[in-house]
Specification:
Blueprint (H helix, E strand, L loop, with lengths): L7 H6 L3 E3 L4 E6 L2 H7 L5 E5 L2 E7 L8 E6 L10 H11 L5 E4 L4 E6 L3 H16 L1
Length: 131
Amino acid sequence: MPGIAHTAAEMIGGMSPELKPGLWVFVTVPQRADAERLLPRALASFAEAEGLSLILPADMAEGQPMRLITLNVHSALDGVGLTAAVAGALAAEEIPCNMVAAFHHDHVFVPAAMAEAALGILHRLQDQARA
């Protein structure tokens, strides 16, 4: 499929990480009424046995404030290596991350205070893949 990166080198070399504005928190909502009220403002959701996990704007819930870095490469859903490379590069610098894969892009959530450092690490990773 043209325009979609398939190999790890293509995905990492083309990831073009972009730090998005805003703060986000991860929460779980066990009550259906709460979920229905919050879901329209959620960036993402995932149904788990314990309840509905939501990524919400930080002003809507308590939790660790996270920043969102979007990897702008259109990666193949069956591509191998992008998530591991990103998480590994951040882990090597002791930056925790939560990866969210969507249809068109992968997204990295990092603690707000570490977002600029994480962005720099991902740009260096991209440069290394291009070399």
